[in-house]
Amino acid sequence: MNASEAATAVVSVTDAKVHYGAVRALDGVTLTIRAGECIGLVGHNGAGKSTIVNVINGGLSPHQGSVAFGGTSGQGIKAAREAGIRCVFQELSLCPNLTVVENTRVMHRGLAGWGWRLRGAQIIAKKLDEIFPGHSIEASEQVGNLTIAERQMVEIAITFCEIGNPVRLVILDEPTSSLDARLAEQLLAYVRRFVDAGGAVVFISHILSEILSIASRIVVMKDGKVVAERAAADFSEHGLIEAMGSVVKARQARELAVAQSGVPVLTARTARGIGLPFKAHRGEIIGFAGLGGHGQTEMLIDLFNTRSGNWLRPADPAVAFVAGDRAVNGTFTLWSILKNFSIGVLPDLSRLGRLDEKQEEALGQSWRERIGIRTPDMEHGILSLSGGNQQKVLFARALASRAPVVLMDDPMRGVDFGTKQEVYGILRSEAANGRTFIWYSTEMDEVCLCDRVYVFNNGAIVAELSGDDVSEENILSASFKEAAA
Ligand SMILES: Nc1ncnc2c1ncn2[C@@H]1O[C@H](COP(=O)(O)OP(=O)(O)OP(=O)(O)O)[C@@H](O)[C@H]1O
Question: Which positions fall inside the ABC transporter domain (predicted)?
Fold first, then answer.
């Protein structure tokens, strides 16, 4: 690095190594981030992206190697903070029992003194307006009452607020994973403005089109190492996938042969009885689309409740549910990976009320291999897994059950490209065997894989699309239609 490059470096990591037992989370990573650039960081689940983020933000000292923050000689979180480095974490880190403005104060010590609440409310409202124009989040709202998308928006806005130290580098770890297409576009536009004004961003995402559109330079990680690093313009989507060690598979054709006549396995109307009715047949993959927060999750929960109303768990479950907000509704954080998986299939693994541990272990191993859960041991705690790998466990829990209907609430949050393709293949083959999937997704590509799609707006279904009518254009135009009574 020459003198002028060193001068603009916000942070430089040299030969960083981090290990957890036998797992090499970082295996000699060297990376410099300069002012005015947006680095796209990609890699499979467990590649080491969140670990390098923790090194860059000073939260984790590498076991070997060094980190230098531009403009300060210190180490750790305090030095990183003083160097203007901020991070929006994948698992989100707001306090749910505090309001939006109180969370702003927790993250910004400079927001203090008489009248801080009013000042803070003005600052955070202004930043939310700037990044997400048209949002409806109140600064006085308790964070626990917000949807996961709103929490993601608040955390992003708080991070970009300038109170005290200037913001020089923002690390965004999968910042659009819960945002619908419109909110994601608003965020990307803001990131472009921030970078044009001299800020630096590290943008981590499994949505490769997003990375290619926002990044100036792309860094590809694999098994704790940087395996490729060059200007974004020199990468294609295909090239990125190959660099990550995944294989691009041909997209499977939509199965129009699915019987849409006959008796539906599920029927419903939306909660307020308005809009079009919903029905699902055996072997269908049904997508829920529309802007986020327009009733899709509520409908999934209603469907789940009506099919599993009894508190006594039946031996033959009627439905399984894959939660999108894994930290709140999905994982048992003190349990092992195996227990988190097997809780969904306990009746199948028990005889006369006793768990057959050998069978439990064998089933866990077979799903570990089938869905690629990256761990040396299924007995390790669930939190030892990377975010995407935790999500795979939740998937395996639902898919391993015998439930004929699987409800999925934006279930691919944080799952890498290669695994997504594997899961799409599993869904297709399970559907061919008669299983029904109801799938809410904030990713348009996923919705377009479904046999039939219901588009939601204002809590009601406003359109039903099937076959070749399932297209981005039709979904977007229906998303802005009003619900008919
Ligand atoms: N506290 C921990 N204890 C044990 N292993 C850990 C711990 N934290 C991370 N690891 C391991 O380190 C490796 C790298 O994890 P990391 O979270 O950095 O991956 P990632 O690239 O961010 O993945 P994802 O895309 O799923 O978020 C993984 O194999 C993970 O299981």
Answer: 11-248, 253-483
Who lines ligand 1 at CB under 6 A?
A: 20, 23, 25, 43, 45-51, 90, 374, 384-389, 414, 416
How far is the C-alpha of 207 from the C-alpha of 16, rounded, in Å? 26
> Cα-flanking dihedrals φ and ψ of residue 79, to 5°?
-65, -40
Which amino acid is it at 35?
A
Parallel, antiparallel, or unpaired: how do β-strands 266-268 and 278-280 relate? antiparallel
Q: Which CATH number applies to 3-244? A: 3.40.50.300
Q: Provide the pLDDT for residue 484.
A: 47
CA of 223 to the centre of ligand 1 (A): 10
| Domain chopping of the chain, boundaries | 3-244, 249-318+403-485
The residue contributing the CA closest to ligand 1 atom 8 is 384
Structure-block tokens of residue 420:
């997504």
The tokens describing 357, both together, are 């541990």
Name the CATH superfamily for 249-318+403-485: P-loop containing nucleotide triphosphate hydrolases (3.40.50.300)
**HSE of 90, CA atoms in CB hemisphere, 13 A:** 24
- Tracing tokens 């559907």 back to the chain, one arrives at 431
| Residues 279-309 pLDDT 10s | 888 999 999 988 777 888 888 988 888 877 6
Q: Please give the distance, rounded to the nearest whole angstrom, from the Cα atom of residue 396 to the centre of ligand 1.
A: 19
Q: Which of the 8 DSSP states describes residue 49? A: H
Residues counted in the chain: 485
Element housing 19 (H / E) = strand 9-20
